[in-house]
Amino acid sequence: MGENESKSLDVLGLKAYGDAINAVTKGAIDGASAFLGRICLPAAEELGLLFRDRVSHWRAFQAAKIAEKAEEKLKTISDSEHGQAHPRLVGLTIEHGSWVDTDEVQEMWAGLLVSSCTKDGKDESNLMFINLLSQLTASQARVLSYGCEKSEKVLSTSGLVAVYSGVYVSLKELTKITGIGDIYRLDRELDHLRVLGPLAAGMFPNPIYTELGPTYTEVEPTVANLMPAALGLQMYVRCQGSRKSPAEYFELIKSE
Length: 256
Prior knowledge:
By secondary structure, this protein is mainly α.
C-alpha cells in the first residue's frame, strides 16, 4: 500500500496517535495478561491474543486499566480468597468492560473481577451482575452507588438486608450526581434502572393536595427516590470486590 493510499484510509488522522500509544498499550496489556494469568490460567493466553489481534488499542488499554484496578483491590480487600475466576466470567468482564473509559465504572468492573475469584474457580454467580452492569450507563452506575451508600439499611428477621426508608434527592442534586440536566433523560435512566431491578423507586413530581384532589405543579420541585432494591445492594457489594453478604458488608452482623 502506497503512502498516499494509506493516508486516504486514515480519514480521522488516528494512525500517528495509534503508533505513539502502541508501546504504552503493549506494556499495559502485558501487565494485564500476567495478572489475568494468575486468576484465570485457561483464558490467559486466549485473552492475550484477543487483545493484540482483534481488539483496538483503545479497548485493550481500557481492559488493561480494569485488570490493574482489580489487582490493586486484591491487595487491599481482606475477605478476598485470592483464588481463581471462572473463564466465562473473566471473558465477559473483559469483553464488556473494555468498552468503558469512565473511572468509577471501571472500578465496578474491577470489583466484579475480584469477587469472581473463589477457591475452586467454578462459581458463576457473578454472571447476573456482569449482565446488569453491561446494561448500565455511567450515570446509572453513579445513581446505584449513591443509593446503596446513602440508604438506611436494616436486617430483616430472615437475615436479608432491606432499605429502611427512601433516598430522596432534589432535581438539582440528581443532576449533580448524574451529570445530566435533561429531565426526560433522567426519568428514562431511573425507569430503566427500576425495570432492570437494582433500583426500587424512581422519579416523581411532588403533589399538591387541594379540595379537588392531588394536582401537580412546576412550582414544586421534582424529586427522585434513589432507594436500591435488594438486588442492587447485592450487586453493589460484589462491585466493590467483596464476596461478603450485604449484612456483613454493611456491618449489620459481624463476620464469622
